[in-house]
């Protein structure tokens, strides 16, 4: 499960804590501390603040005033969780269902695939584009999350292209381990049954 609450609900919980820090003239705070006080997973807190424009590691000292400013903007205007799917196959379809059900604030913008037979066709209510257009599309649509759902021999290349395109967070739905730069937020999910995994690994 991506989260036990949607991001809008969590952002409302961060606000009184940060406001209290400001009132007490606290200048900096670590995300780990926020997570502990609100009884949340630190990785979820890191992802939430990434979505409102604050990036860094859990041990990074963040400016309390800057966090509160970004949070106020997000609460007023909403947060655009624009996501793309890299890999328009069965695993990609399962990932779309999973994301839609588990993260109601997420908006899947497009799918990308290297198979030309899938290009410009509808995949789970979004258009599938050539993988070579990923970088341009990410910048134009301000996509910050890429869900990796390609065959196992394409996973590392897909992740590399996503990072190069400017993606800030990768959600890996494959069983292949990824070694990514520290500034990339990585989440790994297992949503396939044993039978589906055997089929996936045999590709």
Name its key features.
203 residues; alpha/beta; Rossmann fold; 2 domains; seven-stranded mixed sheet; two-stranded antiparallel sheet; 44% helix
Proportion of strand residues: 15-25%
Question: How would you classify the helix and strand content by structural class?
Answer: alpha/beta
CATH class of the largest domain: Alpha Beta
Separation, N- and C-terminal Cα atoms: 26 Å
Shape: elongated
Mean pLDDT: 86
Compute the number of strand runs. Answer: 9
What order do the helices and strands come in, and which of them pair?
Elements: H1 7-23, E1 28-30, H2 31-38, H3 42-51, E2 61-63, H4 64-77, E3 81-86, H5 90-102, E4 106-113, E5 122-123, E6 126-130, H6 134-141, E7 145-148, H7 155-165, E8 169-172, E9 185-188, H8 194-201
Parallel strand pairs: 3-4, 3-7, 4-6, 7-8, 8-9
Antiparallel strand pairs: 1-2, 5-6
Helix pairs in contact: 1-4, 2-3, 6-7
Provide structural commentary.
With 203 residues, this protein is of the alpha/beta class. The chain folds into 2 domains: 7-77, Winged helix-like DNA-binding domain superfamily/Winged helix DNA-binding domain (Arc Repressor Mutant, subunit A, Orthogonal Bundle); 81-201, Rossmann fold, CATH 3.40.50. The chain has 8 helices and 9 strands. The protein has helices at 7-23, 31-38, 42-51, 64-77, 90-102, 134-141, 155-165, 194-201, and strands spanning 28-30, 61-63, 81-86, 106-113, 122-123, 126-130, 145-148, 169-172, 185-188. A 7-stranded mixed beta sheet has the order 5-6-4-3-7-8-9, with helices on both faces. Strands 1-2 form a two-stranded antiparallel sheet. α7 (155-165) links the parallel β7 and β8. α1 (7-23) packs antiparallel against α4 (64-77) and α6 packs across α7 (155-165). The longest helix has 17 residues, at 7-23.
